[in-house]
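User: Continuing from earlier, I have the next pair ready.

Assistant: Great, send them over.

User: Here they are, in order.

Assistant: Folding the first of the pair now:
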Amino acid sequence: MSEIYDAIVIGTGQAGPALAVRLAQAGRKTAILERKLFGGTCVNVGCTPTKTLVASARAAYLARRGADFGVMIDGLVRVDMARVKARMDAVVKQSNTGLTTWLKGTPNLTVLEGHGRFESAHSVRINGALLEAKEIFLNVGARALVPELPGLTGIDYLTSSGMMEIDFLPEHLIIVGGSYIGLEFAQMYRRFGSRVTIVEKGSRLIAREDEEISAAIRAILEREGIDIRLNAECLSVARHGDGVAVGLSCEDASRKVTGSHLLLAVGRVPNTADLGLDQAGIETDQRGYIRVDDQLRTNVAGIWALGDANGRGAFTHTAYNDYEIVAANLLDQDARRVTDRIAAYALYIDPPLGRVGMTEQEVRASGRPALVGRMLMSRVGRARERGETQGCMSVLVDAQTKKILGAALLGIEADEAIHTILDIMYAGVPYTVIQRATHIHPTVSELIPTLLSDLKPLV
């Protein structure tokens, strides 16, 4: 005997809970399923805990720099990793508990804990029970990719999730992967006191960024004592005493780095392999991401996919926007689309990178005539006053329409200042609107009009 619902939501990441509550409030009898951690990646092993660790690492960094500001700290600055972890756990628990209480206290919403798996296009089995619904929403997220490296099965290693469990300071942390997740962990653990080496197969860090930004980020990390090994085209790992050795070349066995702990930060994979998608006839791409249309519908009528697993965005904010798109179309008769979304994200090293729209490489590839403005953060009064002048700003403008195409702000408070540009792009107005605005002094945002006052042709 099956249990009949109007809607089933699988997964409690950033899109699932809000959607389940909206559906329940709209009068749909709804069930939401969670197999492991309420809140998904962001709350438990992603944004919330990592940014809490970043805050602790920054506190240690500023304490060591106290004398630069005339603040004298007697004795050695010491980081108590057990207390750092306890603080992180408390912040995570608050978010996790709040979400769980909200869901379980919502009328017309049934919360089920266990692994849900399709048995047909509109039936899901969980804990032996069979649930049926005309509408099913997948918010199953993604997990850290573990690459097939020679020797990996014979050693201990960490992923971004595993890093949330340690309460000690690695003596020498080797990070395989020179992209966003790896760089955040590299800087925070260097500031906690570990030796840190980043190993990257490519010729530069975060290769999707423009070379100027990539080089500036490398300089920031190296200035803090992080060792960066690029062009590690053939990787292998092996036990080395109580630690690990990472081989960087297949031809030169002597080209390697040894450390105490290994973190793999080489990407993520969707949690779609064990959902029984084939039983429902749901299509995925070669990497396992669920194919969706512009309104997040799968190829099977009555089934939607939201969040990381649909391959249309790998961020908390894009997942939540997925919820907004589905809810608007389904409940509000408001035709919203994924392609209305402007790509925007941040890299939370310190100082952070705020990125929106197209890169210089993408603009050049498009062939359109464009203008570019550039500025070093050393020109920004707020940066000088805070003693944090590292980084740069750049903005790209369509030479014909005068609309902003993209921007990259690398510097103090860049993750907040970037929204000044993002909002103008959503408004669809020319750059002169912000260029003529009077911003508050002293802020980072006040230099954006200045940045836009000195545009040059992009060559």
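And the other member of the pair:
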Amino acid sequence: MAKAKNVVGLDIGSSAVKLVQLKETKRGYQLQNLGLSPLPPEAIIDGAMMNSTVIVSTIRDLVQSLRIRHKEVGLAISGHSVIIKKIPLPAMTEEELEESIQWEAEQYIPFDINDVNIDVQVLTAEPSEQGQMDVLLVAAKKDMINDYLAVVQEAGLTPMVVDVATFCIQNAFEVNYDIPGADTVVLINIGASVINIDVMAAGTWAFSRDISMGGNMFTEEIQKQLNVSHDEAEALKLGGHASADAESVVPQEVERVIAAVAENMAGEIQRSLDFYAATAADSQISRIYLCGGTCRLPSLYKIIENKVGVPVEIMNPFRNIEFDPKRFDPEYIRQVGPSAAVSVGLAVRSPDDK
């Protein structure tokens, strides 16, 4: 049988819809399509779709503007409606695991078991001496998944894959970087409202956590403390200038607000990594890779680097992906690259993935 085409990676974030289409070749992946379309500030709040009409039209317009004919897409979910845990279970076959997982999962999930979709993956190749195996348990609320499926179907697309944002970042990383053999690296996706943290130890998943904060916090603090509009605060955050009405805003004041929010954010990231370190035998982190639209704030990665005491690098999800410079402006790819990590991680999936 011919290999199924990859799905189109569609990342519906709280500030923008990002779309990536890749083609798998003998040499690796080739970029076919890339697009980003902003969403209004209140369209998605805490992962909940508040204005599905505008989300549907944004997706539809983006697909039409890029002339995408391939309708099969992959979606990503994250936030407090998703639970990711590594759990120890007695060694058993995959069939036995599938039969018993509903009962086993109930002990670890703070939601009604009937309200979630569950998936599992065995992490250990061989059972331990105690006859135990480590299993990755993922549970996601059905109502949130259904909301995402509904807007995508209404936009005329066919959802084939629903993944977790954390694992998408890991997919994108694995395609573009050499997997460090014995090292522990941390991938951090800083979006507008959620931070996804993914720890990879010795080339495999080790820990995940989502934090409910992101780029919107910078905008809100600039707006509040410097008494400017939302749009002006957004422009000031990205290094632009305010309108004539807000010309009294001094760049140093903006930097002070950004530094204070970045310190707070770096502290939350540090606490999550401390929690991981307390539960892991070998927790020496060698490097942190940042992605997501908010990582473009120049002071943020320096503050995280100082706080955590580990080298920080901006991840490039197109590092090993071929593209035609006549079709795709290299400068545009460099700018939007960090925002596209989740959609790149989705775009390497195929519809028949298990």
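Worth noting for the second one:
Residues 79 and 181 are 29 Å apart (CA to CA). The chain has a mean pLDDT of 91.
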